[in-house]
Amino acid sequence: EVQLVESGGGLVQAGGSLRLSCAASGFSFDDYAIGWFRQAPGKEREGVSCISRSAGITDYADSVKGRFTISRDNAKNTVYLQMNSLKPEDTAVYYCARYTGREYWLFSVWRSREEYDYWGQGTQVTVSA
Description:
By secondary structure, the protein is mostly beta strands. The chain has one helix and eleven strands, in the order βββββββββαββ. The strands form two sheets. Strands 2, 4, 5, 6, 9, 10 and 11 form a seven-stranded mixed β-sheet that branches. Strands 1-3-8-7 form a four-stranded antiparallel β-sheet, with no helix packed on it.
């Protein structure tokens, strides 16, 4: 059974940091790119970052570029999202998901939710002002 489990969320003050983890199981982890998304109350789920199978390709939403860093440890079947300089507008539920498209197109399509087949349950991140 394919599973993605996020952890590491919590309450933090503006300017603080959190590191989210996405632990995968039930599939060959290093065969898949992974994406991070977030959804704030009343808003659409949006792409935050992606990482290719070998971590050779990474990309970020403009809103988090320079503050968030995505990485993966294929030996541990885990993807990380290091979030620094957090802002109140980063408050959301954060999800990781398995990308099913061709990696050739990853850089162009990773923000599209339709490119992912399995999602985690999410982890809440709350940033206070």
